Amino acid sequence: MTKGELNRRISVWRKPLIDDGTASVEGAPVEIGKRWAKMVDISDGERLRAEQHGQELATRFTVLSDSLTRTITGKDLLKCEGASYYVIGTKRLGARRRDAIEITCGSQPDVAQ
């Protein structure tokens, strides 16, 4: 992957833990960083093979591995070009630590704001 392929700007959002006086609860998501990414929508055939149905859109973002992108989990939210994507999973691409990370996300068109 070349840096020229990273043509979309994504922002990473995470819910902080807030002490409400009796326990720690998750607060509203806050932006924790922005990164350049390559965005690829998952094909219809791939979705059918994975038995995904309904109005959900699936997208993969590929980012360079760094201290922020290595901490992205299913609890995070990504925003890109006005749409919100919930993280389904991540995987490291390449054998070295500083290679890329692929983030698989889902988005529902009627709630992706």
Strand order of the largest sheet: 1-4-5-8-7-6
The domain tally reads 1
CATH level 1 name: Mainly Beta
Order of helices and strands: EEEEHEEEE
Termini separation: 29 Å
Mean pLDDT: 83
C-alpha geometry: globular
Number of helices: 1
Strand content: over 45%
Number of strands: 8
At CATH level 3, the topology is Thrombin, subunit H
Binned, the helix content reads under 10%
CATH homologous superfamily caption: Bacteriophage SPP1 head-tail adaptor protein
CATH architecture: Beta Barrel
The main pleated sheet reads as: 6 strands, antiparallel, barrel
Going by helix content, strand content and strand pairing, the class is mainly beta
Poorly predicted regions: none
Global Rg: 15 Å
Would you spell out the secondary-structure blueprint of this structure?
Blueprint: E1 8-14, E2 17-19, E3 24-26, E4 30-41, H1 44-49, E5 57-64, E6 77-80, E7 83-92, E8 100-107
Antiparallel strand pairs: 1-4, 1-6, 2-3, 4-5, 5-8, 6-7, 7-8
Please, could you describe this protein's structure?
- The structure is a single chain.
- By secondary structure, the chain is mainly β.
- The protein has one domain (3-16, 25-107): Thrombin, subunit H (Beta Barrel), CATH 2.40.10.
- 5% of the residues lie in helices and 49% in strands.
- The protein contains 1 helix and 8 strands.
- The protein has one helix spanning 44-49; strands at 8-14, 17-19, 24-26, 30-41, 57-64, 77-80, 83-92, 100-107.
- The strands form 2 sheets. Strands 1-4-5-8-7-6 form a 6-stranded antiparallel beta barrel. The chain has a two-stranded antiparallel ribbon with strand order 2-3.
- The longest helix has 6 residues, at 44-49.
- It is globular.
- The two termini are 29 Å apart.
- The mean pLDDT is 83.
